[in-house]
């Protein structure tokens, strides 16, 4: 009832129109200007949008996308958050009217597992700019900031889902920035690990664009995973990862899972990137096809036999989609196979991959086959962008690819294909040595030929430029090996990485004088090993980061070969205080998800009410807390601590742990947490930070007014309120001011680094 095709409610377009009109972004691209004749001709000609659906398809592309988000499933709090989204909490957020109409309730994405994917029939612009959505907006921002949800386009959630990542997998995300799919990969890595254990696998998130790598740092930091590293390489020449240090017998990591979410024309993103309407032309696909083939080929080379690689684009163009897959299948000669994964996405509407398509010139003329490319255009079109030959069609099974059309379920356009490596690629060292084993007895000449170096085993120490020079057409790489009979060349010394300016990643030694005090102050268990702790500056250890064992190994053997940009969760932050001579470091909020079970001291178990007080007030006196909390705090020396609410029979709700790092001062306590971390914890505890702030501020003002009226203003109180401690988080925190500030001089705030 009241719903249109594509699942939008009847007021969706009205709201859209209202918010597009007059806004800066909307002005330049109002609905009328979203049109492109060649685009329409090109896609009508492809034929994968049925004629009777064409208008719906084209009109849907002109509308803006709804807001979609995922609850990050590996956090213990996700079930509680889900309860809130399905229940009263969320309906309160939406208890407003836009244009006299109620805001629509959230809808679950049916194909996303465990009810963790959600859609709101509101555009991002409406959510961002309308006052009525401010509560909803605050909720989405805070929960995103602390990693409990990820705002992500619905179709973009598909590739990581069908990659089927398990906690022991070594995963490579080849074109990862800005990192929304990386975040999902990390989440799956953790969610499949045994309870209380860290994954033994890891995720390497790579992007060729150095600046875009830093976009990922923030994205990954939200998820607080010690199992992810961000690196900066050209995916077409992604270096192999060493797993030992023996230069005479180097061993390399082959990946279990690889994501190739390649650069593309992005014509499936027209609903959010409106400039694609103006910029789109028919050569874009052809221009990108070669690069896409090379990235996919390098991915397949780095994949272990039995491993899975997902290729995806946010383009609907077969030249960037099926043509790339077809070329990989062609050159792999049966080593790679397409996998049908539709059962992993129950309820998702999609069209099957196509085996025939059309190629168009810049001017909009059709070219039927490679032999018909006009002479002046020979360089514009690689022959591999044309459809496969009839005999290839039968073996390729391109119908196992999936194309998601925007009008089918109100999404962006998308393409995804899943490939499995069934045996070594032809020409690889492994394939050749297998061939040699069977051929030596049969044909000694052939066996000699196969001794030549393989493409897969190209020189691992060569720079990307050198590797580029060794490349031939069609993504097939060749490099001259020693002539048969020659002595094998000695292993080369690792070359310095050009233009790599990151501070080094330095691992702590057992003997480091900073470590023992931290270990004993927090009572760290042995599984928080010192060799998993790293710092970035020789000058001083301001922040200490924790990485998993697998990441530690990865860095150990590849320091000189890989451009590492970032890794690890910040675990300890230097924060010296005269009150705490025994330890100069405090624990950070960021590491609690990983290290809470490794900390055996300095934990304060508190009730729900106490948790609310500590989180929402600036420096509450210890005397404000319950007797149980007071007793624990009095038995504890001053310094960094962890506050922990755990559900019990007496207090069953929320049914999850809520923990936050804090400080036990002389007479008061405080919470170290960003505004969003506090808002998140309070949401779980059933409170709203803004509402609490408003209430207490009103009470405080009333009290001051009453005192002023009596001419008896407590000057000290005013001064105290003006000299609140300057914390790294202060900019973002609306503290509820307490009666008096205690502990201000206990923490050297200059040394406290951002946990935001
Ligand atoms: C479609 S975006 C990736 C989106 C990302 N997977 C996500 O979900 O957030 C493509 C990325 O490929 C990167 N890229 C382009 N050429 C590349 C190459 N040769 N090697 C690696 N990355 C490349 C671009 O910088 C861009 O960040």
From TrEMBL:
Residues 57-422 form the SAM-dependent MTase RsmB/NOP-type domain. One of its GO terms (biological process) is tRNA methylation. It is an enzyme of class 2 (transferase). The keyword RNA-binding applies. S-adenosyl-L-methionine binds at residues 175-181, 207, 234, 261. The keyword Ribosomal protein does not apply. GO terms for cellular component: cytoplasm; nucleus. Keywords: Methyltransferase, Nucleus, RNA-binding, S-adenosyl-L-methionine, Transferase, tRNA processing, tRNA-binding. It is found in: Nucleus. The active site is at 314 (nucleophile). SUPFAM superfamilies: S-adenosyl-L-methionine-dependent methyltransferases. Residues 464-473 have a biased composition (Polar residues). InterPro entries: MeTrfase_RsmB-F_NOP2_cat (IPR049560), MeTrfase_RsmB-F_NOP2_dom (IPR001678), Pre-PUA_NSUN2 (IPR057285), PUA_NSUN2 (IPR057286), RCMT (IPR023267), RCMT_NCL1 (IPR023270), RsmB/NOL1/NOP2-like_CS (IPR018314), SAM-dependent_MTases_sf (IPR029063). GO terms for molecular function: tRNA (cytidine-5-)-methyltransferase activity; tRNA binding. Residues 426-499 are annotated as: Disordered. Its EC number is 2.1.1.203. Gene3D superfamilies: Vaccinia Virus protein VP39 (3.40.50.150). Residues 443-455 have a biased composition (Basic and acidic residues). Belongs to the class I-like SAM-binding methyltransferase superfamily. RsmB/NOP family. This is tRNA (cytosine(34)-C(5))-methyltransferase. It comes from Biomphalaria pfeifferi.
